[in-house]
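Let us practice reading a record.
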Amino acid sequence: MTLADATAGASIRYTRDGSTPTAASTLYSGPISVTATATIKAIAIKSGLTDSAVASATYTIGTSASCPTQSDTPNFGPNVHIYDPSMSSATIQAQLDAQFAQMKDTASAQFSENRVAQLFKPGTYAVDDNVGYYTSVAGLGQNPGDVTINGHVTVDAFNASDAGNATQNFWRSAENLAINPVGGNRWAVAQAAPFRRIDVRGDLQLYPASYGWASGGYIADTKVSGQAASISQQQWYTRDSNLGSWAGGVWNMVFSGTTGAPANTFPNPPETTLATTPVSRDVPYLYVDGAGKYRVFLPSLRTNASGASWANGSTPGTSQPMSQFYVVKAGDSAATINNALSQGCNLFVTPGVYHLNQTLNITRANTVVLGIGYPTFVPDNGVNAIQVADVDGVRLKGLLIDAGTTNSAALLTVGPSGSSASHAGNPTTVQDVFFRIGGQIAGKATTSLIVNSNNVIIDHIWAWRADHGKAGSFGWTANTADTGVIVNGSSVLATGLFVEHYQKHEVVWNGQNGKTIFFQNEMPYDVPNQGAWMSAAGVNGYAAYKVGAGVTTHEAWGLGSYCYFNVNPAVNSYHAFEVPNTPGVKFHNALTVSLGGVGTITHVINDTGAVTASNTTPSNVVAYP
C-alpha cells in the first residue's frame, strides 16, 4: 500500500498495530507490504501546521471480504410491513390497527414472540399509529422530512390493566420521520424505547394521558418545534437534539448537545445539561433511493456535537447498497449468519426470534449489523451470542439479546481480552442493543456486555435482569446474572446507560478515561437476605456502578440508582457508586432513591451522601470529589 499527502513538504508517520500515530512513529518512505491482517494508521506532519487527521485502513488477509451480491430490493419477510403513499389511508390504518391489537396488551404481548416493523416510503400519510410491544416504526426517506405523518405515532398506558402506569412500556421504537400532531404527540415509554431522528412539528408529551408514572427514556437526533414535557417521567436522556422548550422532571433529566434544553440546575429542578456530546455517531438506517432501491445510510462521526445531525440539511455520511447486506429472516441459523459474515456481508436482521447454537463472529472492520422490529437472538447450550473482533468501525444497532436457559459467560463481547488498538477515528458503536435475563424464559448469563476494545461508543442500551415476567422465568435462583456491563477498554463513552437488577455490581468500569452521560439503575428487587448480598466482609450489598481501583481518569454526569428490596425490606446497600478517591475520577449530579422506603442505600457515592429517605425522595450529591 502507498501513502500520500497533498501538502508539499509534509512527512508521513504511520503505525501497523492500529495505535494512533505520533511524530515518533515510523517515517513513511515507500510502499508498505501488508502480509497479515493489520490496521494501518497514518498522519501527515509539517512544521508550523496542525497535524492532519488520522487516516486509517484495515486489511484482512486470508479471508474473503467481498459479499456475494444480494438483492437491492430484497424480500424482508412477513413481519416487515411496507407502506406506500399510493395506498389509501383507510387500508394503512386498518393494517396498523390490526398489528397494534396483536402487540398491545401488557399481560399477553410483553413476553410474546411476535415482532413487527412498519416502514413508510417517502410521502405523506394521514394515519394514527399506536405502537405496541416489539414494534419499530420508521420512515424510508434519507432524512426525516421525506416521510410525513399527519396524525400521531403514539405510546400510552393503553390497557386497563396498566392502571394508567407506563412503566412497562418497553421494546418499541420510532425513527426517521416527521409528525404533524394535532394536540401534540404522546410517547409515554419506559426502557428500550428509542425516539430517534424525528421531526415533531408541535409538542411532545413523554407522560401517559393519565399522568401516571413512566420510566423512560431516550431521544436522539430529533427536533421538537414546540414543548417537550416529561411531567411524570422518572428519568430521561436527550442527546444531540433541538427542542422548542422543555418542561418537567422528577428525579433525573439529562441533556447533552441539545438546544432548547433547560439550564443545569440539579438537584432543584433535577436537570443535568451538557452543552455538547463529546463524541457521537448517529445510527445506521434503511432508506429507499430515487431508483426505488434500498440502501443503508451510515452517519459520520461527530465530536462536540450539538443539535440534530440533519438540522441544517442532510445528515453527513455515506451509504451502502443492500447488495452488501445479507437479510436475516425466518429459517436462518447461526451457521448461515456466520457464513454471510465470513463472506464479507453486513447483516440486516428482520423481526423474529433466532436461536443460536454457535457464537456469531464479527471479524471484519466496518461491519454493520442493523436490526428492525426487535429481532431477538437467543444463545442456546451456553454459547456466547455475539463476539466482535478488535477492529475499526463496527456498527451494531437495533437488537435484543435474550439469555438462554444454560448460562452464557457473556451475551456480547466487543474485542478480545487485552485489546489495545486505538479506534478513536472510527470507533465501534453499540446502539439500541438490549439485553434480557429472564422474563421470557429463565435465562442465565454471567455478564451481558463486555467491552474490551478502546474508544467504543455505547449509545442507549438496556441491560435488564427481569424483575417480572412469565411464571418460573424470574427469581433469585432462576434468572441468575452477576453483572450487566464490564468496560475494560480505554476512552469508552456511554451515552444512555440503563442497567437494572443484576445480582452483583451492575456496571464495573476498569478502563481509563471512560465517560458516562446518563445512568439509570434499579438494584435487584429479590435479594433474599443480607447475607446473600455482601460485596466484601462487612460491606452490605454491591455498588451499582463501580469504577476499578486502578482507574485514575473517569467522569460521569446524571446518575440515578434506586432500591426496592421487596422480598426482604431489611436489606441494605452501603452505597450506589464506588470509585477511587483520586482527582481524575469525577462524578456530577448523582442520586439515590428508595422506592416507597422499601430497603435502604446508606450513601450515594463511597461514604458521601445521606441515607435514602422513607418517602421516595432522593439523596443527592452534586459533585464528587
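A brief commentary: Helices lie at 89-103, 106-109, 334-342.
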